[in-house]
Amino acid sequence: MPVVQAEVVVPVSPAVAYAVSQTTGDVRRRWDVFIRAQHFLDDATLPAKGVRTATRQRFGLSMTTRYVSYAPPTNVGMVMETGPWFFRSLGAGWRFEEVPGGTRAVWKYSFRCRPAWLAPIAERIGVVVLGREIRRRIAGFARGCEDPVVLAAADAIRGGKGKGPDPT
After folding, report:
1. What is the CATH number of domain 3-157?
2. Is pLDDT at 18 greater than 80 in this prediction?
């Protein structure tokens, strides 16, 4: 299964980095270059294991995903339930680890393409395309971890536990 990943060190605690990764709506679009629209499904209002989301990316492709793990402030994972025809499967996950100077955030995608006869070529192309996309997204995430609007939203997600970009 092909895997692409990107990582960055951001100058905030793991709890804040985690919360930034879970922002939604206009706040999410401030840092996430991939998403055009995203919302929770099934009357959910907060992310949690089992919660489903609908996402439309900037070129119009849509997918439904489900949280398969939600463990603040260390990791979160999602899998695609429905999406573009060329993905047989797609999973994404974040890991957060405290390091000197902040938090190391690692974002990873794993995927399979279809149809089977085209998968070997499509997956090589996918590694290039998704690799470029994940690097753009994590660079945006790093900018979000320094954006006062995004940090205020992250603080609200955490229940008002911090007073700025460096709460513990």
Report:
1. 3.30.530.20
2. yes
